[in-house]
Amino acid sequence: MVDKIKVENLSCYYDKKCALESLNISIVQNEILSIIGPANSGKTTFLRTLNRMNDFDKTYSRKGKVYLVGDNIFDMNMENLRKRVGMLFAMPIPLPMSIYENVVYAPKRLGLISKKSELETIVEQALKDASLWDEVKDRLDSSAMKISGGQQQRLCIARILAINPEVILFDEPCSGLDPISTAKVEESMIELKRKYTIVLVTNNVKQASRVSDRTAFFLMGKLVEIDKTDRLFVSPKEKQTEDYITGRFG
Ligand SMILES: Nc1ncnc2c1ncn2[C@@H]1O[C@H](COP(=O)(O)OP(=O)(O)O)[C@@H](O)[C@H]1O
Ligand SMILES: [Mg+2]
Questions:
Q1: Is any ligand 1 atom within 6 A of the Cβ of residue 61?
Q2: Is 41 in the pocket of ligand 1 (CB under 6 A)?
Q3: 132 Cβ contact partners less than 8 Å away, ≥ 6 residues apart
Q4: Ligand 1: does its nearest atom lie under 6 Å from the Cβ of 216?
Q5: Given the DSSP bridges, would you call strands 17-28 and 3-14 parallel, antiparallel or unpaired?
């Protein structure tokens, strides 16, 4: 098992308020690690720290280290980090342009490719990996705003895949989706872990139990417990974990 991300003693603050406290966690290559926990437990803060999205927030500060295969991400050039670590949000936000243009937007902007034939290969592969290709292959030129919410969310996944990252961060990616669209996104995540390392923040414990290899339970800025998903759900070590997964609080 190779550590893709290694977090050492990470603490995060907004002004003086601690949002994440002395976190130590490793994320293994080609796993889906779910992070569950009630609102305000620091899940989003953790994801936004992993691709340094919070660096622009003036109230935010942090201590500790995060390594991406040995490289300290806080010393890394931001554009390089964003190429290696992609992030998907709760609400799908496609760009107001065609499906095709959405997928090629980032690789073009980052200057990753120039030839049209290369772009076409990237679009097809990204849409296939996002489990969307069959549904849109005959209408790549139609507007991304006209497809369903579930399709838009998979399109947003394809946009991330097009830059070929190593790690993908998902922040409650299905919270706005119906059960059928949710199942499709989950299917796509399971496919994706063959090539990528995935961190999935979810407010849906059933989703964590369905898709992830390991699950971490966060509570009030602390990592309470992390284990193989089946073990964590069947025999949690901590009472707080048990209370949360059985719905006794949250
Ligand atoms: N931009 C922000 N400014 C100030 N406080 C924040 C900000 N974002 C989050 N927080 C606070 O940090 C804590 C953790 O929040 P968050 O990481 O969003 O938790 P979760 O995603 O688990 O709901 C909460 O107490 C929240 O109010
Ligand atoms: Mg959140």
A1: no
A2: yes
A3: 151, 154, 155, 157, 158, 188
A4: no
A5: antiparallel
Neighbours of 96 (CB within 10 A): 10
Residue 92 has pLDDT above 90, yes or no: no
List of residues 6+ apart from 158 with CB closer than 8 A? 102, 103, 123, 126, 127, 129, 130, 132
**The predicted structure's pLDDT at residue 249:** 66
Write the CATH number for 178: 3.40.50.300
Entry pTM: 0.94
Ligand 1 center to 12 CA (angstroms): 10
Range of the domain at 32: 3-245
Residue whose CB lies within 8 A of the most ligand 1 atoms, among 43, 45, 199, 244, for a mutation test: 45
What residue type is 210 in one-letter code? Answer: R
What is the reported pLDDT for 89? 85
Mean pLDDT score, 51-66: 96
Closest ligand 1 atom to Cα of 15: 4
In a domain, 250, yes or no: no
Q: Are the beta carbons of 86 and 160 closer than 8 angstroms?
A: yes
- Yes or no: say if 31 and 213 are a contact pair by the CB < 8 Å rule: yes
Query: Strand, coil or helix: what is 193?
Result: coil
pLDDT at 118: 87
Residue type, 223: L
Give 245's pLDDT tier (boundaries 50, 70, 90).
Answer: very high
* 39 Cβ closer than 6 Å to some ligand 1 atom: yes
Q: Does residue 142 line the site of ligand 1, with CB under 6 A? A: no
Count of domains observed in the chain? 1
